[in-house]
Amino acid sequence: MKKLLIHNDNTNLVDSFNMSIKVVFSDDIDRYIDENIITKLEQEDFNIIYIKDNLSSNYLELYGLRVVYHIRLSTQLKEKRFVPIVIVSDIDEIVLNRLEPMARILFTKNIFLIKNSKEAFDDFHDRDLKDLTPKEYQNSFLNLINIEAPENSTSHNIANEWAMYRWAEFLKVESRAIHSNNNKIDSMLYFKYLLAKNPIKRDRAIGCKRVKNSGKILYIDDEWKSGWSDIFESYFDKSLDIDFETFEYEFKDKNIFRVKIDIQKRVKEYNPDLVILDLRLIENDHKNINREDISKYTGIQILEDIKNINQGIQVLMLTATSKSVILDKLYEYDILGYIKKEHPIDINITTKENLNKLADLVDKGFDKSYLKEIWNIQNTILKLDLFKKDDEFFNKIKLEIETIFEILNSNIENKIKFTLITIFKIFEILTEKYNLTGNEFSKIKSLFQNNGLEDYDNNISQIVCSRNFLIHSGNKNKLHNSCQDSLIEKPNQEHILTWFKMLKKILQNIDEKKKNV
After folding, report:
1. Fewer CB within 10 A of the end CB, N or C, for the chain?
2. Which CATH number fits the domain that encloses residue 285?
3. Total number of domains in the chain
4. Which of 317, 316, 257, 304 is nearest to 282 (CA)?
């Protein structure tokens, strides 16, 4: 058999091999193994590998066992990773397993242990050994091992790097930041294990949804520079007429007050329809990642600031947490929804499903973008002097106006119809106040004319006919003949905006008249 030895000059078997790799480890063990051992194995022709269990001056480090895992999990080796592997050791398997948890690989198929002696080697090397089959690799190796996350990595960091790798691979996004993250993923043993357990399907983005609607998106995340901005920019660039902007900001060492002020300023300047907002933005957010009082997270406080600017701005939360209690509590706030940066332990959703969810939520957010203008109209009306005094009549109107945004921002059915009825009711209250007579059309027309407003006849006819059609349960026979050309059977957001603007104009004129009296 074509034998290859991996050693550190600590075995007398070196002369028995035509091919060998001598190792001298650096501080970054995984990167060294990937770049100096796996790369060389790609170039060599062998069908069995012998590895000394300890490959450094510290016998207890047993890095040879880590190399075995790397070989088995390195997809770039292709069929070579299935070859028989023999661990050469000065101790038996019982002691090895006491010293190093990674020694459990000895219980997987096609892994052998021999003593570090010429006699043991001579006795073993004539065996007729075969490579693992793909089925054996899955059942007799991959399903039997477990690689723990590095001690110096937080759950948040792992989820962030893992999700970025999968999204970038799935969408075929390339950039310097993505390349740097990919190199880290490709070389780290833990991530090699995750990729073996959760391979990225070759079809990748085939059939993946894209955003259909248009609008403006502001992306806010402390990890924007690590590659996430490149991913989102690439994803939204393939959709129609989306203006996407990243809040390029150095969050490190900033306190929450500075961050809040700077984000508020950018939101006001950019006026987005949708904000993609990360839950954790500053250092304090990451110190206690299991904190269940989510109101303390910077992302939640920024969400509240955004809603104070304009409640119609839709906010999509982005989070790396896998804690269901935190995810459930997000819906206690006025969010459009949330997208998870996939954590390795979360097997309930695939990258494709996550991206499809993103597309659906962004489309939903753009559908609701008209609420920004509804909020502005409502606030403009409520700031009129008419509603600053304790006037029973105008307080009655104020109560009705205050419900309009709330209705449209809710999930109730027929909210457009309820809003139509509410706006029409306010017109009726005004016509009664000023003792206007005639049918609904003529009374509202008189209201406009008395306030110096012309050219509203068509809009007045539309709201009157649409409201009457609604209260008569869609029976056109009960409508006046004049409604044949004006009826809107299914009013939409644009009609509501038009009628709400009409109401604003009337109330502004009434307010101005009162000031001049």
Report:
1. C
2. 3.40.50.2300
3. 3
4. 257
- How far is it, in rounded angstroms, from Cα 342 to Cα 349? 8
Long-range contacts of 24-28 (CB under 8 A, 24+ apart): 25/55, 25/56, 25/63
* Residue 295: per-residue pLDDT: 86
Structure confidence by residue, pLDDT tens digits, 269-324: 999 999 999 999 998 887 765 566 788 899 999 999 999 999 999 999 998 876 76
Q: What is the CATH number of the domain that holds 7?
A: 3.40.50
The parent domain of residue 413 ranges over 372-516
Q: Are 427 and 444 in contact (CB under 8 A)?
A: yes
CA atoms of 6 and 87, how far apart (whole Å): 10
- Check whether 438 has a pLDDT greater than 70: yes
Is 273 in the same domain as 303?
yes
Separation CA 23–CA 80 (nearest Å): 20
Same domain, 80 and 187: no
- Cβ neighbours of residue 308 under 8 Å, at least 6 residues apart? none
Mean pLDDT computed over every residue of the chain: 91
d(CA 141, CA 143): 6
Q: Which residue, chain included where needed, has tokens 């009374």?
A: 443
* 116-123 average pLDDT score: 92
Using alpha carbons, select from 192, 162, 148 the residue that is nearest to residue 38.
192
CB-CB contact of 409 with 311 (8 Å): yes
Clarify whether residues 419 and 352 are in a common domain.
no
* 350 falls within a domain: yes
Place of tokens 């194995």: 41
Give the residue-averaged pLDDT of 25-33: 87
3-class DSSP state for residue 233?
A: helix
Residue 99 gets the label, from left (phi > 0), alpha (psi -120 to 50) or beta, of alpha
What gap in Å lies between CA 237 and CA 359, rounded to an integer? 13
Per-residue confidence (pLDDT) for residue 205, from 0 to 100: 57
Q: Name which of 490, 239, 482 is nearest 359 in CA terms.
A: 239
In whole angstroms, what is the distance from residue 183 CA to residue 179 CA? Answer: 6
- pTM, whole model, 2 decimals? 0.86
- Whether 149 maps to a domain, the answer reads no
Tell me, yes or no, whether 150 lies in a domain.
no
Tokens read off for 284: 């304090």
In the three-class reduction of DSSP (H, G, I as helix; E, B as strand; rest coil), residue 251 is classed as coil
The angle, 0 to 180 degrees and rounded to 10, between the axes of the packed helices 392-408 and 493-516 is 160
**Which of 104-113, 187-196, 323-332, 502-511 has the lowest average pLDDT?**
323-332
What is the torsional sign of CA 345, 349, 350, 354?
negative
Which pLDDT band, with edges at 50, 70 and 90, does 198 fall under?
Answer: confident
Higher pLDDT, 327 or 383: 383
